[in-house]
Design a protein that fits this description.
- The chain is an alpha/beta fold and 216 residues long.
- It has one domain: 3-Layer(aba) Sandwich (Rossmann fold), CATH 3.40.50.1470.
- Helices cover 35% and strands 19% of the residues.
- The protein is built from 6 helices and 9 strands.
- Strand 2 and strand 3 form a beta hairpin.
- Helix 2 packs parallel to helix 3.
- The N terminus and C terminus are likely disordered.
Length: 216
């Protein structure tokens, strides 16, 4: 990737989903990034396997438009995600601008997602680690809404932990399945026509929890 290329023209080469390894955390809200990578791998027919060099589950192949793409699920636990991402980025000489990170966001309701080209960690420990290890905030990220904890609790910190490590309801799961399809379309467009184009087309989409109908 030529250094003269602006970040708005760079297309994702490494797609990372954040989460925690182990059966204890499977299908929890905090692991929606892992689920997104599994879905992309399934649709694109990219085999995923353990890669000790990257401390993660990794695969490479081609996207829907025959672009070269690499998929990564760090196995370092959320707070150390950046170690795995940096290892893969260094090995393939991929600049931060071409690394797309997918993760959960409590500030977005279920049924919403937001693609951005850069930004802060927003309190997300996985993103704090990623920014620290890449030494940059200038990389695209796709935040998937998981909603915020309901009601008031005596210990708000425990409430947050219980929320992100909890599982989706049956109705929420139906929405999240549609959301993964929307994530796929968003990423495919970003790889074909760039991040700004995908942002303009998909950032305002909503998948309704009640009816599961999609509206722009």
């Amino acid at each position: 990737m030529a250094s003269a290329t602006s970040s708005s023209e760079v297309k994702p080469q490494l797609i990372v989903g954040l989460g925690n390894p182990g059966t204890k955390y499977e299908q929890t809200r905090h692991n929606i990034g892992f689920e997104a990578i599994d879905y992309l791998a399934q649709i694109w027919k990219i085999p995923l396997a353990e890669n000790r060099k990257f401390q993660g589950i990794f695969g490479e192949g081609q996207g829907s438009h025959r672009e070269k793409v690499r998929l990564l699920k760090p196995q370092t636990y959320m707070n150390l995600s950046g170690q795995s991402i940096r290892a893969a980025a260094d090995w393939y000489k991929i600049p931060p601008e071409a690394i797309l990170v997918i993760y959960d966001d409590m500030d977005l309701p279920i049924g919403r997602m937001r693609l951005r080209q850069s930004g802060s960690a927003g309190g997300h420990n996985g993103m704090k680690s990623t920014i620290s290890h890449l030494n940059s905030q200038n990389f695209p990220r796709l935040r998937i809404g998981i909603g915020s904890p309901k009601g008031k609790a005596a210990n708000p910190d425990n409430q947050v932990v219980n929320h992100v490590l909890g599982r989706f309801s049956a109705a929420e799961n139906r929405v999240m399945k549609e959301m993964l399809d929307l994530v796929l379309k968003t990423i495919e467009l970003s790889m074909k026509d760039g991040i700004p184009k995908a942002m303009s087309l998909y950032n305002n989409r909503t998948i309704e929890l009640e009816s599961n109908s999609q509206a722009s």
